[in-house]
Amino acid sequence: AVALSVLLTCCAAQTLDVDGDKIVEVLTRLANFSDHENPAVTRILFTPNDMLARKFVKDLMREANLVIREDPMGNIFGRWEGSDPTAPVVLTGSHTDAIPQAGMYDGTVGVIGAIEAVAALQRAGFRPARPLEVLMFSSEEPTRFGLSCSGSRALAGALREEELEGRRDAEGRHYLQVANEVGYGAASTSQLLATSRLPPGAVAHFVELHIEQGPLLEREGVSIGVVTAIAAPSALEVVFAGEGGHAGGQLMPDRNDAGLAGAELALAVEAAVLATGAADTVGTTGTFEVAPGAVNSVPREARLGIDIRDIDGPRRDGVVAAVLAAAQEIAEKRKVRLSSRVLNQDPPATCHPDIVEAVAGAAQQLGLASRRLVSRAYHDALFMARVAPTGMIFIPCRNGWSHRPDEFASPADIANGVRVLALTLARLAGGEWAKSEL
Amino acid sequence: AVALSVLLTCCAAQTLDVDGDKIVEVLTRLANFSDHENPAVTRILFTPNDMLARKFVKDLMREANLVIREDPMGNIFGRWEGSDPTAPVVLTGSHTDAIPQAGMYDGTVGVIGAIEAVAALQRAGFRPARPLEVLMFSSEEPTRFGLSCSGSRALAGALREEELEGRRDAEGRHYLQVANEVGYGAASTSQLLATSRLPPGAVAHFVELHIEQGPLLEREGVSIGVVTAIAAPSALEVVFAGEGGHAGGQLMPDRNDAGLAGAELALAVEAAVLATGAADTVGTTGTFEVAPGAVNSVPREARLGIDIRDIDGPRRDGVVAAVLAAAQEIAEKRKVRLSSRVLNQDPPATCHPDIVEAVAGAAQQLGLASRRLVSRAYHDALFMARVAPTGMIFIPCRNGWSHRPDEFASPADIANGVRVLALTLARLAGGEWAKSEL
Ligand SMILES: [Mn+2]
Ligand SMILES: [Mn+2]
Ligand SMILES: [Mn+2]
Ligand SMILES: [Mn+2]
């Protein structure tokens, strides 16, 4: 039966009808829902443009004959019923939110691409045994609440009530409040999380299609990345506070300039990362805010957001510890007060061998070059891996660029990724191809 | 006649009735017009709170029987006519605008205090020979247009049309536009400047009362600072631009992180200042903005506002040159693009000996300890010195703090400053004290 199924899939694959230009056209329409003018895309959780993007995605799901379900966190599911409706579901999806002035491919390729993969399977006459669901995760990006992957953390039961309640947006509001205002939400944060959590055993497999956000595939001219592990990210917030003062009146020996403490720490982050000597260790001071922020005022406060990642958990934790120690030293030397918080320090995830095999096999079947690699970027797959066998499919993106307006993936590469995703889903769900395709 | 006049002033001084608590009460009411909650004061040019503060000042001027005149830049004059109305005027004043989250004494003491000095002279029966005018300068602080002392520059004819037109606020609007919207302004920037400029010879003397914004007077227990020179400030804007990228996906060797270039430059500013070995050299990176400003994004741009001051012009220019050279080196090393602008590099000003003598004499007459000192902070007096003999009176402020919510000057010190200002104005204007005071 296994051999027959592979044979059927093999033949059907030749006829999988996926149009890269059409997908890019859909992605371009989606990019219009943005707080900045295209090509920059800014789409923050539960803002008007995020809500418009959600409607756009649901309309596409309906066109693909998917049955829509939304959970209180704002995760959106589109279900293609299987011939065995009680079987655990094969899930695929990604996110459509975007950090300020990002691009139009990060996340969106894995949502629009998943809908297109399902549509291509339908056109090819495939009928899944297990149910197939396309998922748009809520708030993969940390922009609004400082917490990435809020939706997938909740699905995986990896989000504690106190953690979510401790987060507020720039207006001082909670996830629960803003979720309720846009029509999601629940009576309490506790109910929000309990209702969103996936029941044990509900998911047979999870697979996510995504742009690489790194340079390897493009450099090597390889179409498909088969992800074997997802790097472990950590985020820190460090605040230095000094006395401030007038930039003219306060003499240099009388100063405790919080901005200079921040500058030293940003450089210390870089030094601590380079000190590991490992190519896989990266560290970034992505936010750097000084107050009061006037040219003629000595900074009274500096607030830094620091991101440290590695595929090796303990090595990453060593860098986190080195950065915190440097912050302490700098604070003492510059006589500023220090407060620091580890916002998250999640463990890395390993992709499931069954899915690694399914993806690699699908690429091979389509005649596409593939290579195994590690994801250094954060993904919802990191949390889905806690509750289901998980894998990821990467496609090349120009120069490895991401989180910037000129982020780019070619229509041909996107189409290849969608074909590989479609065949992977067919392999994982099992099922039948139309007789006519034989 | 000179001897008699001094004698008369001497006797009247004993009866100068100035109530420090009452002045602080007025300053506290003024502090309410703020975009941040008190004790923080934020009052930006031509915002609703600035307009309310202007009305408040004009009402006080009217209560003191001053005749109000406003110019197109928004400078407000309150005139006490002299017995010789055609004589050049004796001017005194300061500003009421405040940078974000500043305090309630910077500038305001020299406006409210000047009105109170005039009122005290009136109560003492003084009648000036030369006209006396109290002046509230428009936009001493650079917050809105990046240009400090806009009002006094215009009065002194030290503001070029292209320079003012080249400045835009955060909403991309010009001084002319916002001035017109609130009821100041003119048909063109050229007309705005021509109409605001003081006619040659119009001002006999200018004197400004201000908190020290430095620690010397408080440390030495001296009530009155007699300012002999005003330090020469320079402001730079430096922008580094790199490629940005994803904080997880972009490996360290592939980065050109603009934020780290900015961090290095902020530290280079400090190093260049300390390298002069002179206590009078100060340098500050007061603003530091990174874009896109997301924790998971490598900074694509860093924008720094740098302030460098010295009482020695050439030494300050040496620091400016060293900072610009450091920026160049950093840009090359980190492979980021650099653009830098010198926003201003004004020459220092020397106070006029006549006013230095008048202030020191007034303090002595009142039995107050005084010392000569240099102003390291920027003041409108810097520009008034270009068109009239100019001087400044400093009073102590707690810890030398300024530009912060806990900026503080005591009611007794404020009252002393106002008494010295009143006697100085009487000396400079000439005139008669009421017979009853003899
Ligand atoms: Mn992203
Ligand atoms: Mn993503
Ligand atoms: Mn100031
Ligand atoms: Mn001032």
Structure description:
With 438 residues, the first copy, chain A, is α+β, with helices and mostly antiparallel strands. In chain A, 37% of the residues lie in helices and 24% in strands. The first copy, chain A, is built from 14 helices and 19 strands. Chain A has helices at residues 2-14, 20-31, 48-63, 108-123, 150-155, 161-165, 175-181, 189-196, 216-220, 258-275, 313-334, 353-365, 381-384, 411-429, and strands at 41-43, 67-70, 76-80, 89-95, 98-102, 127-128, 132-137, 203-211, 224-230, 232-241, 245-246, 282-291, 297-298, 301-310, 337-345, 349-350, 370-375, 390-395, 431-432. In chain A, strands 2, 3, 4, 7, 8, 9, 16, 17 and 18 form a 9-stranded mixed β-sheet that branches. A 4-stranded antiparallel β-sheet of chain A has the order 12-14-10-15, covered by helices on one side. The model of chain A is unreliable at 1-7 (pLDDT under 50). Chains A and B meet through strand 5, strand 11, helix 10, strand 12 and strand 13 of A and strand 5, strand 11, helix 10, strand 12 and strand 13 of B. One manganese (II) ion binds next to loops of chain A.
Number of domains of chain A: 2
Count of DSSP helices of chain A?
A: 14
Biggest interface, and residues per chain? A-B, 76 and 76 residues
Q: CATH superfamily assignment of the largest domain in chain A?
A: Zn peptidases
CATH class identity of the largest domain in chain A:
Alpha Beta
- Distance, first to last CA of chain A: 16 Å
**Low-confidence stretches of chain A at least 5 residues in length (pLDDT < 50)?**
1-7
